[in-house]
Write a structure and sequence with these properties.
The chain is an alpha+beta fold. It has one domain: Gcn5-related N-acetyltransferase (GNAT) (Aminopeptidase, 3-Layer(aba) Sandwich). Strand 5, helix 3 and strand 6 form a beta-alpha-beta unit. The structure holds coenzyme A. Coenzyme A binds next to strand 5, helix 3 and helix 4.
């Protein structure tokens, strides 16, 4: 499905606003991915130079251009400060086209239910707008917080899809798998 009419550049929850990233978010992309705490379980995602954040933003933007959705920047509704990122990337898993759920938040924001709130909104959006696609999260087995977020959004363990990813073995959580 390559439907530009899907483009939904802003979502809102009780506390949060999710918006399509712009170049003005590159500094936040860098700051959040340059913090060793946020990439502890996925070191391949860590950034050491700002230019890498420019490249990453370009990649995120290309996904938006191609598919009409992607990763959103998460802020509180009443603040311009970027708290983190949450969204969907189209990918292949086990020969199936799937939506991969992503979330990464600044360490200073952790523990207040913000990732769960944003990710739940994204999963709800996908179930309404892309109902034919399975949705998964790939989580490192020792990343308990990420597993808790996946479960809170309604995903369940799909052991049969577990596979080795960029940073080692990933546990797969999923919803809307083909029957
Ligand atoms: C994963 C992440 C987004 C969670 O953000 P958050 O806003 O703190 O998450 P929430 O506050 O919504 O908490 C969700 C659950 O995780 C639990 N949790 C949060 N941090 C935890 C920790 N360090 N250890 C164990 N559980 C933790 C919370 O208690 C909550 O559990 P509950 O559902 O039983 O109440 C955040 O830790 C992060 O950005 N990590 C780095 C990036 C990352 O690993 N992304 C996932 C890649 S697969």
């Amino acid at each position: 499905m390559n439907d530009r009419s899907l483009a939904h550049e802003e979502l809102q929850t009780v506390r949060l606003s999710l918006r399509r990233p712009t170049e003005a978010d590159i500094d936040a992309i860098f700051a959040i991915h340059n913090d060793p705490g946020t990439c502890l379980h996925n070191p391949s995602d860590a950034l050491t130079e700002r230019v890498e954040a420019q490249v990453l933003h370009q990649r995120w933007n290309d996904h938006w251009q191609r598919w009409g959705y992607g990763y959103w920047v998460v802020r509180r509704r009443d603040s311009p400060l970027q708290l983190g990122f949450c969204g969907l990337k189209t990918m292949e898993l086990n020969g199936m086209r799937v939506l991969n759920l992503f979330y990464r938040f600044a360490t200073s924001t952790w523990g207040h239910g913000l990732a769960s709130e944003a990710a739940t909104e994204v999963v709800t959006w996908a179930s309404q707008r892309l109902p034919d696609l399975p949705l998964i999260a790939r989580v490192r087995p020792d990343n308990i917080a990420s597993q808790r977020v996946a479960i809170r959004t309604g995903l369940t363990r799909a052991e049969h899809l577990d596979e080795t990813g960029y940073d080692g073995f990933d546990w797969i959580f999923a919803t809307n798998l083909p029957g």
